[in-house]
Amino acid sequence: MSKQNRRNFIKKSALGGLGLASAASMGMSAQSYNNIIGSNDRLHVAIAGLGRRLGAYYSPIARKESNVKLAYLCDAKKSQMTRAAKRFENHINYNPKLEQDIFKILDDNKVDVLINAMPDHWHTPGAIMAMKSGMHVYVEKPSSCTMEENELLVKAANKYSKVVQMGNQQRSSAHTQQVIQKIHNGAIGQAYKAIAFYSNGRGEVPHQKKSSIPEGLDWNLWQGPAVHREYTSETWDYNWHWYGWNYGTAEMGNNATHELDVARWALNVNFPKMVEVDSDKRHFVNDGWEMYDTMLARFSFEDNKVIEWDGKSRNAYNTYGSGRGVIIYGTEGSVFVNRGYYKLFDRNGKLVEEVSSGGKEGGVTLGGGGDMSTLHVMNFFETIRGKSSLNAPIADANISMAMVHYANVSSRIKQNFEVDDVKGTMFNRDAMEHWGKPYQESWKKMFLNI
Questions:
Q1: Can you give the residue range of the structural domain that contains 322?
Q2: Are residues 131 and 207 in the same domain?
Q3: Are 345 and 233 in contact (CB under 8 A)?
Q4: Is residue 121 within 8 Å of 139, Cβ to Cβ?
Q5: pLDDT digit string (tens) for 256-307?
Q6: 123 phi, psi to nearest 5 deg
Q7: Measured in whole angstroms, how far is the alpha carbon of residue 444 from the centre of its chain?
Q8: Sheet holding 164-166: strands in order across?
Q9: Which of 34, 158, 219, 279 could form a disulfide with 295, with the two C-beta atoms 3.0–4.6 Å apart?
């Protein structure tokens, strides 16, 4: 069965009475029919990028209810593939193919789904190339690096009719869904302000130095759509986040993505009208870190609603009693919510309700995996089958991403600016210079032409 026929079959293969009746008329047992449906309903999945988010995919792929087969593990570094395969041995009883070259996966018409966990600069280009190849995409945060990529990703999802979900997994958190619904139903009156925050104690970062390419790393492939340059030490692993804008999106793309998304969800707002940012590099000022590590940002919206961001990458003081989370203020009360629990207070500060997630996904430590991620990936799988709807459709998720990009642009040009809250464009000539980003010239045609 071809990929297109299988996908059409997947969408139509809810096991209803009509299907069972047809099976009976053909002399097939219900179990035999279930086996056929199970085979064709199965999604063939490739994971590209086998770093710290790998643990987020063990459970949703291994669960029998997911009915997926892990077809490929892909990474630009060979040791990452062998490590990932070894870890998956504890969760599945078969061996996925190991493939360093993502283009070979994109050419395989048996693959239905790409989980894109590559570095930031690969997120939008890789997702678009996968959609062009007929795949649905689960793209890790940040789903885009610029406002231009925001538009391209949504345009591609619409043009190719693909299911695309961003890895803002708190959208699939039961306790968060519950308290957001309460807020929208007036539990704290009219919600008017949210403070999103993140505090971490990241240490000193080495200066980049020209170095030999690590064994087994395809450096040109790792750089992919980004502007290519010589390899420097410390770049391949996590520190690419802080080594300039060619690959990373700083802490806004790395973590603010999550908290700002919850804040915007709670206040039920879209694009802001005004962006104001105070940011700087405050710690280890002579080390190799090239971005801000401390930021205060303020986003003003219609109806006098405000979202503030308090980000401290290298000062772990828990200003708000937790390493990360969101506080929502309303005319009749307040809410504190993070990945582990929420607390609802009345206007006098009295605790009215406290609900814990009972899960294991929270905090600021590196690494992936947990209940929310499992639910989020499974929601994605079930939406592909037509049995659910996305908790974080890319068109909505990328509105949250806009706040990330506005803050980064404001930090880079050292200017505040107004925003067209309908179109999302920035009323600042210098800011609009950063609407897009440079790419490696030979790669542009692969994803810019939609």
A1: 173-364+392-427
A2: no
A3: no
A4: no
A5: 999 999 999 999 999 999 999 999 999 999 999 999 999 999 999 999 999 9
A6: -65, -60
A7: 23
A8: 97-98, 68-74, 43-48, 113-116, 136-139, 164-166
A9: 279
Closest CA to 251 of 221, 283, 206: 283
Query: Same domain for 237 and 329?
Result: yes
pLDDT, tens digit, 9 for 90 and up, residues 42-94: 999 999 999 999 999 999 999 999 999 999 999 999 999 999 999 999 999 99
Q: Are residues 88 and 221 in the same domain?
A: no
Q: Is 375 contained in some domain? A: no
Specify the amino acid at residue 43: L
d(CA 389, CA 381): 10
Give the residue carrying structure tokens 């593990």. 73
Token pair of 54 as six digits: 């790998």
Cβ 141 vs Cβ 168: under 8 Å:
yes
pTM, 2 dp: 0.90
Q: For the residues of 262-330, what is the DSSP string, one character each?
A: HHHHHHT--S-SEEEEEEE--SSTTSS--S-SEEEEEEE-GGG-EEEEEEESB----TTSSSEEEEEEE
